[in-house]
Structures are given as C-alpha cells and as structure tokens.
Specification:
Number of helices: 4
Structural class: mainly alpha
Shape: flat
Distance between the termini: 42 Å
Strand content: under 5%
Number of strands: 0
Radius of gyration: 18 Å
Helix content: over 70%
C-alpha cells in the first residue's frame, strides 16, 4: 500500500485505479438518468441496461460483504485494514443504493424499471 515513506509510480497508479473504480459508475448512472428522462414512458430504463448495472453493483456489494465476513470469521485476517480499498469499496456500493432500490422495486412488481423523473 501507500505510506508516507515511499510512494512509487506503482503505488500511485494502484491507488488511482482503486479511487477511479469507485466513481466510474457515475457517468453511466448520469447517462441512464438522462436517457430515462427523455423516454416516452417517462423514466423507463431498458431491461438489459438495468440488469447490467445491477450486476455491476452486486459485484461490489458482495465484495464488501466478503470483507465483513472474513473480518468476523478469520482471526488471522482480522488485522487486515487497507483504508484505500475499504473506503473506496463502500463509497462505490453506496453510489449504487438508489439504483438498487428502484431495480428491486421493479423486479418485485414484475415491471420494467423506471426512474423518478
């Protein structure tokens, strides 16, 4: 990881990639909202797009759950703490929460996903 004593190009690139991954979904969510606002159905999202973004978010949410599980059950792993990875993973998962709400609501109602407009 990155520490105050040595920050080589590899460590800087690694940290940047972790931070970038955390916010890389923002342009996709923004475009999804803009497209949904311009549909004749008023907020409708294509099923394939909704499933894809849900899968991306689920991947990260399961990653965070894996960290919590390992922290709770593996004593030798309990000392693991990498703030860059943990904070970025939680931020990325939180960015998906609003989308998850509307996705799950649509799946339960057996309808196409619709965003509020």
């Amino acid at each position: 990881g990155i520490n105050a004593e040595y920050m080589g190009a590899f460590e800087i690139s690694w940290a940047f990639s972790i931070y970038l991954e955390a916010v890389a979904i923002l342009p996709q969510l923004h475009m999804l909202t803009r497209i949904a606002n311009n549909t004749a159905e008023g907020g409708s999202v294509e099923n394939l797009t909704a499933h894809y973004i849900f899968a991306l978010g689920s991947y990260r949410a399961l990653y965070v759950l894996n960290w919590v599980y390992r922290l709770a059950t593996q004593k030798h792993w309990g000392s693991y703490w990498d703030p860059i990875v943990w904070v970025s993973g939680v931020v990325q998962t939180l960015l998906y929460c609003d989308f998850f709400y509307y996705y799950i609501k649509a799946v339960r109602a057996q309808k196409s996903m619709s965003l509020p407009v």
